[in-house]
Amino acid sequence: MNKKTLLSLFDNATSRDWQDWRWQLKNRFTKISHIKKLFGEDFSHTRILDKITGIYPMAVTPYYLSLIKNNISDDPVAAQCIPDMREITLGQKYPEDPLEEDTKMPVPKLIHRYTDRCLALVTEVCAVHCRHCNRKRFWAKPKSGNFKTRLGGFIRYLEKSPQIREVIISGGDPLIYDDEKLESILAGIKTVRSVEIIRIGSRAPAVMPMRITKNLCRILKRYRPLWFNTQFNSPAELTADAARACNMLQEAGIPVSNQAVLLKGVNDSEDKMRALLYGLQKISVRPYYLFHCEPVKGCRHFRTSIESGIKMMENLRRECSGLALPQYVADIPGKAGKIPLVSISSSTKAEMRKFQYFFDNFT
Ligand SMILES: *Cc1c(COP(=O)(O)O)cnc(C)c1O
Ligand code: SF4
After folding, report:
1. Coil, strand or helix: which one is 11?
2. Does 184 map to a domain?
3. Are residues 143 and 17 in the same domain?
4. Residues 6 or more apart from 29 whose CB is under 8 A from it?
5. What is the average per-residue pLDDT within 105-112?
6. What is the pLDDT of residue 1?
7. Is any atom of ligand 1 closer than 6 Å to the C-beta of 120?
8. Which of 96, 203, 263 to probe ligand 2 with, by most ligand atoms within 8 A of CB?
9. Which tens digits make up the pLDDT trace of 137-162?
10. 98: confidence class by pLDDT, cuts 50, 70, 90
11. 107 alpha carbon to ligand 2 midpoint, in Å?
12. What is the rounded distance in angstroms from the CA atom of residue 99 to the CA atom of residue 329?
């Protein structure tokens, strides 16, 4: 679906509007009927029902929709944003909150699982509703609390928790807020002396890259050391717009890292994963984590086996630059947290044995 076709659906919309993130947000596609009309025959055969959007609403920016280049049923971007029947037929016994995050909040919307850092969920709203989202429960039934009360609670908790040196601003997508509101969050958190590092987790570079504006970068720059973690899952998302967005952040002195999710049909083959990792490396975005897809209700059809994930990453480790390799992890509830998923193959063990290394270190 190209940009021109999509723009023509809106009265008098221009390329300039397209580059305006507010326009993108305002004109998100939320109705199955629109998607059906746009994709025509291809789409009428697929498994889409309005019923799903009643449970997990759809929201797709025109920009993200423009990245769909194939049939809906065979496209890495469509898989991530177009509702799929399997969301309500498979894995219905999976929990909505497998990490039990909702029970781990010392104050509303702040998750403190690891000693030196915490996750501040500043919103439940996202630009695009990712079909594989592990926090679907947030936006499935949106309820918004008072922003100031929430931020006040965060700051009070941080004040009495000096062991927290890093705050991860997440959600939802924090970049759903305008610059002013975002700055009030940054400024508020920065008032806490013991907070040394701020991290922002946002999918904006992938789903609405026009959100990364000059003004936003000017603001973020003032709050360094600030790290930006985003989520690209497919090379189809690594567009010129996305590269520009990442570059603007980098030029403001903000390192950009990527947390991908291993998703069946999207990036679960060596070729697709290699293309994603090389593509990220080419725009200086460091692959940080590759998450094994969690057992979340509504996401069953995205899950692969851990064995196949380990195998894929092992093969890639043999051929790819270390700078292009993320750590493949599974997040589980409880103390263990994110667990690296690795295995040493028997052939590698044999090679290690040759160099005495295996005996020295593993026996
Ligand atoms: C993943 C996560 C973090 C960040 O962990 P890193 O390994 O530093 O990326 C922090 N808090 C919570 C609750 C998390 O789930
Ligand atoms: S941007 Fe993140 S929180 Fe929002 S829907 Fe996508 S995966 Fe979920």
Report:
1. coil
2. yes
3. no
4. 35, 58, 59, 60, 61, 62, 65
5. 95
6. 87
7. no
8. 203
9. 999 987 778 999 999 999 999 999 99
10. confident
11. 22
12. 14
Pocket test residue of 109, 135, 231 for ligand 2, highest count of atoms within 8 A of CB: 135
338 within ligand 1 shell (Cβ under 6 A): yes
| Peptide bond just before 54 cis, omega within 30 deg | no
Q: Taken in order 200, 283, 260, 125, is the CA torsion positive or negative? A: positive
Using the predicted structure, report yes or no on whether residue 355 has a pLDDT greater than 70: no
List, edge to edge, every strand of the sheet that includes 166-170: 110-114, 117-121, 166-170, 197-201, 226-230, 256-262, 286-292, 327-332, 337-340
Q: Are residues 309 and 194 in the same domain?
A: yes
Q: What is the mean pLDDT of residues 342-353?
A: 74
Q: What is the pLDDT at residue 100?
A: 86
The reply to whether 64 and 143 lie within a common domain is no
Domain count, the chain: 2
CA-259 nearest atom, ligand 1: 9
Give the pLDDT of residue 363. Answer: 43
| 268 neighbors 304 (Cβ within 8 angstroms) | yes
For residue 164, the domain's CATH number is 3.20.20.70
The neighbouring-strand residues paired with 198 are 167, 226
pLDDT digits (tens, 9 = 90+) for 232-255: 999 999 999 999 999 999 999 999
Q: Is 152 in the same domain as 74? A: no
What is the extent of the structural domain holding 34? 3-87
Q: What is the pLDDT of residue 359?
A: 52
Segment 190-200 mean pLDDT:
98
Closest ligand to residue 208's CA: 2
Last residue of a domain, one of 58, 87, 116: 87
Q: What is the DSSP string of 68-111?
A: --S-GGG-HHHHHHS--GGGTTS-TTS-S-TT-GGG--SBTTEE
* pLDDT in the model for residue 275: 98
Same domain, residue pair 319 and 199: yes
CA of 162 to the centre of ligand 1 (A): 17
Domain co-membership, 164 together with 30: no
Same domain, yes or no: 132 and 198: yes
Domain check: are 184 and 300 in the same one? yes
